[in-house]
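#structure-requests
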Amino acid sequence: MDKLGISIGYLISQIVNFTLLAVILYSLLYKPVLRMLRERQNRIAKSLADVDAARESASKAQQEYERRIAEAQRKAQEIIGQSAQQGEQVAVEIRAEAQRDADAIRERARQEAAEEKARILAEVQNQIASLSVLAAERVLGQSMDDTLQRKLINQSLLELSAAQPRRTAVPGVPNGSQS
């Protein structure tokens, strides 16, 4: 081998050096690099799992959000419907109360008109009685006592009311009679 330019001692020392260098590099560099690569691989796998979990959590949160929005819209529609129904009920109650008030006002007006008519009739009867007494005094030429006057007045009023024809109902006049 000397002819080839290879020295056996040198070759053996090179093989020993290479083997020693390979063992040292394997233990000092290769194992830590492999460990570092495994740790990195584990971190990446964990990150991917975290991303998947976050994506799933976001999806669930989105579904919950959409469910709550739908529930809120349903409740809003329900409240609007109830408000409309209550508004209609209040309107009906207001109309009914207004009708009752109008009926009460009409009845009060009828009563007042009847009272006014009775008062006017009483005044007219008193005036007729006074005029009748005056006329009777002038005809008889003397004054009469109160009881005789009242008797004659009442008799005259009864005859007058019996002689009056019945009147027909006139629109706008209470109790269907004319005054």
